[in-house]
């Protein structure tokens, strides 16, 4: 029985409710009064339920789709402005005991190079990332209780935060590791992590069990209930995602929104972010072998609908996608992107020899961070290296209530400009620097409060003089 407030996976992601939702969406996909009403409801910027959003996903009327895209762009602009938060993944270890059929780290893969970074190697990788200009990392690891125990992850986080190279510093470490216990989540919280990210992969239980035939990840309920344990362990910001391509996208979309509704019902705060990865070619993985592949237009439609269904949730797109797909995603709702990513273990300081590849998947966007920053600014965005919110305690429901009150503009916008300024001075190429300096000057005027604008101006001057890390 469907119950969003239940703590049982099979009740808050109720299979029958998803099937009923899809049937309801099919019955109503040409119900124009209903659809027009739903678009009007979404325009109130309070979100949509999984049923409502699923009807819009089933709708194929071009004129109405254009209205949905326009609304997604507007909501994106109103809540997030033109800032795009930058991050990079850091792969710590690809040892894994699971049998995930879409991931080359699966236990049976004997020809992928297995690597695990030592603390000394982490120092080298993080130094290389700092030298590009990154301030925010997402650490990634396979699941292997012996090779990658929680103590190793905690020690690595400590190492990452301790490294200060030139003006570099990693100010926020997000964590994407396998589902774990409340006790371990508490330890991650104490280690000062930002968001805990865990992709559901698929919400379809039967498919989930087939796609994860062996290993601890096989347990659907344990995986699906992980965010509740993370929140019980004190982590306020959690990041959801499905791996699009594995199952039918309409099923996943309903499941994803039901998961968000569940977090809101139980913990009073929805997901901090939603990621939209698609399955990619990898060492022994052929993405066409999975049933749910989606084309770029459907992918864009999903992004726009997530944007209007959960307007307060940040959206993340990785370098799995090409520059062209990312540009479209940014317009329709994505607020965070990675840049210059390597999905290999130890790939930042030295390229891997081809016969020793430890990569998780092929990246499509292979540009340097400077190229991505330059490109974003030419598209009219402000690349932001800001990490202030969680360091100022603006997490969970505190962050959400500020966002809902439209107050984030007074912190995020100046913070984005100040961190961009740091980047331009410390790391940018001359061309990127010239574009950025002009952009900052023009954008200063968009800070709503005069007092905040003045402080930002003063801080920008101090940054020029070599002082770092100002934040509102
Ligand atoms: N082992 C952890 C877990 O079980 O959640 C950490 C996550 S793994 C390093 C990061 C994510 O990469 C996975 O959750 C999965 O969605 C994604 N992934 C795995 N194989 C992929 C592929 N072939 N293409 C694209 N993404 C993939």
CATH architecture of the largest domain: Alpha-Beta Barrel
Q: Main sheet?
A: 9 strands, parallel
Bound molecules: S-adenosylmethionine
Would you identify the CATH H-level superfamily of the largest domain? Answer: Aldolase class I
Give the tally of β-strands. Answer: 9
The domain tally reads 2
**Class per helix and strand makeup:** alpha/beta
* Strand content bin: 5-15%
Topology:
Elements: H1 9-12, H2 15-27, H3 32-42, H4 50-58, H5 62-80, E1 83-93, H6 119-132, E2 136-141, H7 150-162, E3 172-176, H8 182-190, E4 196-197, H9 205-211, H10 220-224, H11 226-232, E5 238-241, H12 249-267, E6 273-275, H13 296-309, E7 314-317, H14 323-332, E8 336-338, H15 369-378, E9 382-384, H16 388-391, H17 396-404, H18 408-426, H19 430-444, H20 450-464
Parallel strand pairs: 1-2, 1-8, 1-9, 2-3, 4-5, 5-6, 6-7, 7-8
Bound molecules: S-adenosylmethionine (SAM).
S-adenosylmethionine binds at residues 102-103, 140, 142-143, 176-178, 198-199, 201, 217, 243, 277, 279-280, 282, 285, 320, 360-361.
Describe this structure in words.
- The protein is an alpha/beta fold.
- The chain has two domains: 77-366, TIM Barrel (Alpha-Beta Barrel); 390-464.
- The chain has helices at 9-12, 15-27, 32-42, 50-58, 62-80, 119-132, 150-162, 182-190, 205-211, 220-224, 226-232, 249-267, 296-309, 323-332, 369-378, 388-391, 396-404, 408-426, 430-444, 450-464; strands at residues 83-93, 136-141, 172-176, 196-197, 238-241, 273-275, 314-317, 336-338, 382-384.
- Strands 1, 2, 3, 4, 5, 6, 7, 8 and 9 form a nine-stranded parallel β-sheet that branches.
- Helix 2 (15-27) packs across helix 4 (50-58) and helix 18 packs antiparallel against helix 19.
- The site of S-adenosylmethionine has 21 residues, from loops.
- Residues 102-103, 140, 142-143, 176-178, 198-199, 201, 217, 243, 277, 279-280, 282, 285, 320, 360-361 line the site of S-adenosylmethionine (SAM).
């Amino acid at each position: 029985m469907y119950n969003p407030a239940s703590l049982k996976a099979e009740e808050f992601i109720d299979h029958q409710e998803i099937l009923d939702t899809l049937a309801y969406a099919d019955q109503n996909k040409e119900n124009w009064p209903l659809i027009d009403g739903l678009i009007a409801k979404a325009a109130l910027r309070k979100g949509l339920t999984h049923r409502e959003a699923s009807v819009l996903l089933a709708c194929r009327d071009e004129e109405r789709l254009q209205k949905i895209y326009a609304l997604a762009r507007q909501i994106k602009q109103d809540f997030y402005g033109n800032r795009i938060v930058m991050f990079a993944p850091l792969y710590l270890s690809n040892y894994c005991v699971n049998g995930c059929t879409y991931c080359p780290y699966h236990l049976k893969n004997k020809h992928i190079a297995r690597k695990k970074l030592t603390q000394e190697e982490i120092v080298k990788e993080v130094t290389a990332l700092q030298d590009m200009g990154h301030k925010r990392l997402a650490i990634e690891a396979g699941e292997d209780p012996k090779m990658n125990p929680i103590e190793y992850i905690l020690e690595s986080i400590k190492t990452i935060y301790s490294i200060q190279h030139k003006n570099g510093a990693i100010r926020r470490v997000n964590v994407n590791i396998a589902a774990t216990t409340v006790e371990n989540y508490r330890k991650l919280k104490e280690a000062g992590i930002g968001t805990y990210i865990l992709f559901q992969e698929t919400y379809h239980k039967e498919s989930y069990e087939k796609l994860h035939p062996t290993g601890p990840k096989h347990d659907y309920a344990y995986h699906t209930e992980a965010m509740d344990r993370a929140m019980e362990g004190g982590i306020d910001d959690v990041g959801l995602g499905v791996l699009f391509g594995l199952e039918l996208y309409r099923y996943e979309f309903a499941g994803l929104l039901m998961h968000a509704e569940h977090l809101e019902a139980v913990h009073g705060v929805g997901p901090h972010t939603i990621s939209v990865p698609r399955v990619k070619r990898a060492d022994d993985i052929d993405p066409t072998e999975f049933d749910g592949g989606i084309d770029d237009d459907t992918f864009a439609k999903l992004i726009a609908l997530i944007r209007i269904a959960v307007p307060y949730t940040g959206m993340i797109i990785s370098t799995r996608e090409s520059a062209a797909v990312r540009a479209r995603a940014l317009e329709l709702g994505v607020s965070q992107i990675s840049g210059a990513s390597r999905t290999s273990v130890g790939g930042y300081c030295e390229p891997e020899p081809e016969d020793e590849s430890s990569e998780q998947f092929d990246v499509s966007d292979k540009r340097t961070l400077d190229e991505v920053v330059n490109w974003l600014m030419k598209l009219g965005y402000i690349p932001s290296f800001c990490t202030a919110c969680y360091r100022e305690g603006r997490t969970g429901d505190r962050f959400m209530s500020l966002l809902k009150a439209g107050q984030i503009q007074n912190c995020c916008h100046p913070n984005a400009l100040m961190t961009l300024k740091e980047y331009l001075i410390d790391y940018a190429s001359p061309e990127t620097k010239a574009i950025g300096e002009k952009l900052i000057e023009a954008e200063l005027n968009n800070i709503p409060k005069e007092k905040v604008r003045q402080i930002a101006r003063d801080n920008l001057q101090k940054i020029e003089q070599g002082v770092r890390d100002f934040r509102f």
